[in-house]
Amino acid sequence: MTRIIAQPCVDVKSGECVDVCPVDCIHDAGDANMLYIVPDECIDCGACESVCPVTAIFPEEEVPEQWKEYTAMNYKFAEEKRGL
Fold first, then answer.
1. With contact defined as beta carbons under 8 Å apart, do 16 and 53 qualify?
2. Rounded CA separation 71/60 (Å)
3. Fewest CB atoms within 10 Å of the CB: 1, 18, 31, 53?
4. Cα separation of 24 and 36, whole Å?
5. Which of 14, 3, 4 has its CA nearest to residue 54?
6. pLDDT at 84 over 60
């Protein structure tokens, strides 16, 4: 299982989640307006979720229905990061 960053992160990118992630799986895409989690790097520890100031991070199976497209966006970011 993995965590997903969803819509509340858009235009925020506060970074607390990056600071506490023990495996460095949260990334700034540079020109993107949000942070992303690389799903296959995430160890599902939940440290990022507890510090997110805008409640943008969810376990993959608990992403609210209105933000389900952000699951695919996190996976797409991971693929692009790997150069696939």
1. yes
2. 7
3. 31
4. 11
5. 14
6. no
CATH code of the domain containing 73: 3.30.70.20
Dist CA 9 CA 51 (whole Å): 13
Indicate the pTM of the whole model: 0.92
As a whole number of angstroms, the distance between CA 79 and CA 54 comes to: 26
Look up residue 32 and give its two tokens: 């993107």
Instruction: Name the residue among 34, 29, 31, 15 with its Cα closest to residue 81.
Output: 29
CB 26 within 8 Å of CB 37: yes
Which tens digits make up the pLDDT trace of 52-80? 999 999 999 999 999 999 999 999 999 98
State the total domains in the chain.
1
Amino acid at the residue 60 = E
Mean pLDDT of the chain: 93
